[in-house]
User: Which sequence fits this backbone?
């Protein structure tokens, strides 16, 4: 079993373009959620989201690329560039042959579906652009990353709704730990903030119209975000031999299925995933100082998650910190675990715990230290990142300070 | 078809019961409608009466729309039809 470390990180999300801007926003407890801006937004009853602002794809990609890159692929490529440049790796020869890319997304090219359905149904056109399929497919982002950086090893896309990125990173972790790959590029992306994407979520009646307030007694639902997070997972010896900067070590991962309900979360399933991650990392409950919560701000998730943390950690649940950064960047659905892993890295590396903002009222059913409203300085040795998806599919990662 | 008959029909269909098994005093819980079934019933009611119901699944009991019994649901629908006419 090989040790696995993170040697590169990249992101674009509502809090900023790039890791430094995102971490600065998290430290300041800034909110990236605001009024949505896209065609037909006035026909929605939910009109807020964590949208990537001032984004001009034409300045970043050429015409040929834009024809092939859905917004979720564009976000992925930007985040991957930042991560791979930071790692300093060049993929050639044997390294290229075994290094791959595993990414998570729930919806893939949602706005490509949306635009083209509109074109044929609403505008009555009988012809769509020839590249609609390669643009919208869920694996488009992974494939373009592999092409751009010559990654020729195991590459695929994982789609497990809100846990997609965590499942993807768990896979990448196992590929490097087992020795199958020296390096894996991993993370995820989502871009559902278009009319059809938000309209679908509206139907479920779990969206907030005003703010995402995880763990707060007056929380009233989730708020969607968009963007990408991408990381370079590398064999520790390989990273050390080339003198790479190590951001954190990935020490464990666990996945579980509730096998219970298509939308309601399960305390047992969530607790099993957290306990499994500790066992996989061979650490004790008391080693964990911080949990980046799934923390969606819905009634169902937050109380179930807090009960699961209490079950998995016993008395230590009262001593650890748990925050939901979704309060700032929104819920990136399939990309959310990737952006949230940045908060874990910040906790371990910088000793800064990202807050749960918009927290207004304590909820007795969420009686944990949720780091309300303001970031906190604290030394943390081990951090967990939780993701619990619709369909009852859970994935938890454990990271350690290096 | 009046509001009461149509509403009972929608709830019966969701609960997989006969309309005659549903009374005005029935609660959704009694007829076996869970949270997902409730969201689907609200949707069906909105479609049937062309109204928009203020309802958030995060706090169903605190919504302005009273879902405590079939009677309260029918009353709520009648009010919304008047308001949104």
Assistant:
């Amino acid at each position: 079993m090989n040790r696995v470390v993170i040697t590169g990180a990249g992101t674009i999300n509502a809090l900023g373009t790039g890791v430094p801007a995102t971490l600065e926003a998290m430290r300041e407890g800034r909110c990236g959620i605001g009024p949505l801006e896209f065609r037909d937004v006035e026909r929605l009853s939910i009109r807020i989201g964590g949208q990537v602002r001032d984004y001009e794809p034409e300045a970043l990609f050429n015409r040929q690329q834009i024809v092939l890159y859905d917004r979720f692929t564009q976000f992925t490529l930007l985040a991957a560039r930042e991560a791979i440049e930071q790692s300093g790796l060049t993929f050639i020869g044997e390294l290229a042959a075994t290094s791959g890319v595993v990414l998570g997304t729930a919806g893939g090219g949602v706005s490509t579906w949306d635009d083209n359905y509109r074109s044929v149904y609403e505008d009555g056109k009988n012809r769509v652009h020839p590249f609609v399929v390669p643009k919208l497919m869920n694996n488009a982002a992974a494939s373009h990353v592999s092409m751009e950086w010559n990654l020729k090893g195991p590459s695929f896309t994982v789609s497990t709704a809100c846990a997609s990125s965590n499942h993807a990173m768990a896979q990448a972790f196992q590929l490097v730990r087992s020795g199958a790959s020296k390096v894996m590029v991993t993370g995820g992306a989502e871009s559902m903030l278009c009319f059809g994407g938000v309209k679908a979520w509206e139907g479920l009646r779990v969206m907030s119209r005003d703010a995402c307030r995880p763990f707060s007694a007056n929380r009233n639902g989730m708020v969607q975000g968009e963007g990408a997070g991408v990381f370079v997972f590398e064999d520790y010896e390989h990273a050390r031999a080339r003198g790479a900067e190590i951001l954190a070590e990935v020490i464990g991962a666990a996945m579980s299925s509730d096998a219970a309900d298509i939308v309601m979360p399960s305390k047992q399933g969530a607790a099993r995933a957290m306990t499994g991650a500790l066992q996989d990392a061979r650490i004790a409950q008391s080693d964990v100082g911080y949990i980046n919560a799934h923390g969606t701000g819905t009634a169902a998730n937050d109380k179930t998650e807090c009960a699961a943390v209490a079950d998995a950690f016993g008395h230590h649940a009262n001593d650890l910190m748990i925050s939901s950064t979704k309060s700032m960047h929104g819920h990136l659905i399939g990309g959310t675990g990737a952006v949230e892993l940045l908060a874990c890295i910040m906790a371990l590396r910088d000793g800064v715990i990202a807050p749960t903002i918009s927290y207004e009222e304590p909820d007795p059913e969420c009686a944990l230290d949720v780091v309300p409203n303001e970031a906190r300085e604290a030394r943390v040795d081990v951090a967990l990142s939780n993701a619990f998806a619709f369909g009852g599919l859970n994935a938890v990662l454990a990271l350690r300070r290096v | 078809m009046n509001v009461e008959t149509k509403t009972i029909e929608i709830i019966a269909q969701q609960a997989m019961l006969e309309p005659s098994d549903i009374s005005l005093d029935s609660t959704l819980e009694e007829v076996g409608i869970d949270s997902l079934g409730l969201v689907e019933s609200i949707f069906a009611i909105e479609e049937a009466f062309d109204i928009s119901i203020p309802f958030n699944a995060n706090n169903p009991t605190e919504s302005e729309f009273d879902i405590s019994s079939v009677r309260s649901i029918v009353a709520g629908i009648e009010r919304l039809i008047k308001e949104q006419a």
